[in-house]
Amino acid sequence: MKRFVSALVLVASTSSPVLATECPTLQAQIDAAIGTRYDPSAANARQLAAEAWALHQADA
Questions:
Q1: How would you write the pLDDT of the chain (60 residues) with one tens digit per residue?
Q2: Range of the domain at 58
Q3: What is the DSSP letter of 36?
Q4: How far apart are CA 53 and CA 59, in angstroms?
Q5: Residue 3: inside a domain, yes or no?
Q6: Is residue 24 part of a domain?
Q7: Residue 7 maps to a domain
Q8: Looking at the 3D structure of the chain, how many domains does it have?
Q9: Residue 27 contacts by C-beta under 8 Å, 6 or more apart in sequence?
Q10: Residue 14, SS3?
Q11: What's the longest Cα–Cα distance across the chain?
Q12: What pTM, to 2 d.p., does this model score?
């Protein structure tokens, strides 16, 4: 059981930085999808995207 947990921790610690490089691509996709929309759902998406980008910058 200790080996399994150790392996899981090792995989999790090495894969999270790899996934973090996808954030700029996803941010660009969100910006393109929102475009120049000004409806409430687009405003909510902009706010959530800004929060996500701030979290990405904090981890970098």
A1: 667 566 666 666 665 555 567 778 888 888 888 888 889 988 999 999 899 888 888 865
A2: 20-60
A3: T
A4: 10
A5: no
A6: yes
A7: no
A8: 1
A9: 49, 52, 53, 56
A10: helix
A11: 52
A12: 0.58
